[in-house]
From TrEMBL:
The keyword Transferase does not apply. Residues 42-254 form the AB hydrolase-1 domain. The keyword Hydrolase applies. This is Alpha/beta fold hydrolase. Keywords: Hydrolase. One of its GO terms (molecular function) is hydrolase activity.
């Protein structure tokens, strides 16, 4: 890191030590293989409004069936985790780092949507074996503009502290049965307004500890994250995104959920030194 970056990190960490994040009870769901094959554990981090349930629907059990211990954490105020009025991006990052530190081995962090932004910040505080950003929402003005174009009625209230309301076409592909889409939509919650504003501010993450390999997954038909944003996200890590046409933003809940997960697991198996 440059001297300027090191100085900024020291100042930031000093503030964090002076004002520690309040502890909050975390929901962590899991599925583990019957036999320990030595694969690194996966920690799935859902995006804003989603909880660990989004990965428990399909991905946890399938990852375990392929030998990977799989865990999903609900950020504070989401899913079955403790309510946390005034939660910030820093608090969400704390939840992920603490959950990862409690796993039996060095973990792979997998963040979806705004959960990918949380993972990018967690990578500066936790030495992950690898990271996967799924349909990443990494914040900044471009995020707000893309959301306003795709869903102005549901997005505008969030810019003023209200709830972000996503609709079916944004989250799922056409193949998903309406009954399943309604069931998933009914479970969506909301992030705290402070975290939403911090997402839009788009503060860049600090450099990752140990420079772990990073994979970016997404869909060119995602109505939350446009293709250009996927390309930019992957470009930050010197790669191109792995794309799954015809799927919506919530790849882990869509009809063809197994395709991106298998691609993720295959990448982990082939990545040198990751096993």
């Amino acid at each position: 890191m440059s001297g300027t970056t090191e100085e900024r990190v020291r100042i930031l960490r000093g503030r964090e030590w002076a004002h520690p994040v309040r502890a909050a009870r975390r929901e962590v769901l899991s599925a583990v293989p019957e036999l320990d094959e030595g694969c690194p554990p996966l920690l799935f981090v859902p995006g804003f409004g989603h909880g660990a349930w989004a990965f428990a629907e399909h991905w946890l059990e399938h990852a375990a069936s392929r030998g990977f211990p799989a865990y999903a954490v609900s950020l504070r105020g989401h899913g079955g985790s403790e309510p946390a009025p005034g939660a910030t991006l820093r608090a969400y990052t704390h939840d992920v780092v603490q959950a990862a530190a409690e796993l039996p081995r060095q973990a792979v962090l997998v963040g979806h949507g705004a959960g990918a932004l949380v993972v990018s910040h967690a990578l500066a505080r936790y030495p992950a074996r690898a990271a996967v950003l799924v349909a990443p929402v990494l914040g900044g003005p471009a995020t707000a503009l893309a959301a306003l174009r795709a869903n102005p009625v549901g997005t505008l209230p969030a810019l003023f502290g209200g709830a972000l309301r996503l609709h079916r076409r944004q989250l799922f592909g056409r193949e998903l049965p309406d009954a399943d889409a309604r069931r998933h939509l009914a479970r969506l919650g909301r992030a705290d307004r402070r975290a939403q504003w911090q997402l839009l501010a788009g503060r860049p993450a600090e450099p990752a500890v140990g420079h772990p390999p990073v994979l970016v997954l997404g869909s060119p038909d995602d109505r939350v994250v446009p293709p250009a944003a996927l390309t930019r996200a992957a470009g930050r890590y010197g790669a191109a995104p792995l794309l799954f046409p015809g799927m919506g933003h919530d790849l882990m809940l869509d009809t063809r959920w197994q395709e991106p997960l298998d691609a993720l697991l295959d990448w982990l198996v082939k990545e040198p030194g990751r096993r």
